[in-house]
Write a structure and sequence with these properties.
- It is a single chain.
- The chain is an all-alpha fold.
- Helix content is 72%, strand content 0%.
- It is built from four helices and no strands.
Length: 68
C-alpha cells in the first residue's frame, strides 16, 4: 500500500500534476488536478515503478477529461 508520504516524494505524481494543470487550465483548479493524480497513483500502487510515470498521467488525463 502506498502512503501519503510516498506520494509526496513521487516524481511521477509531481510531473503529471504539472503537465495536467497546464493542460486543463482554466477548466479545472490545480487542487482538483492534484487530487485526481494522487488518487490515480494510489490506484496504480501495484504497477512496476518504471511504468508509473506514463500510466499515472494517462489514467489521470482520462479521469479529468470525463469531468472537464
Amino acid at each position: 500500500m502506498t502512503s501519503t508520504d510516498d506520494l509526496a516524494l513521487d516524481p511521477a505524481v509531481d510531473l503529471a500534476v504539472a503537465r495536467l494543470v497546464d493542460e486543463f487550465r482554466p477548466r479545472l483548479r490545480p487542487q482538483v488536478v492534484g487530487s485526481v493524480v494522487r488518487s490515480c497513483r494510489r490506484d496504480l500502487s501495484g504497477v512496476p515503478a518504471t511504468a508509473l510515470p506514463e500510466l499515472v498521467e494517462r489514467l489521470a488525463r482520462t479521469r479529468l477529461e470525463s469531468v472537464a
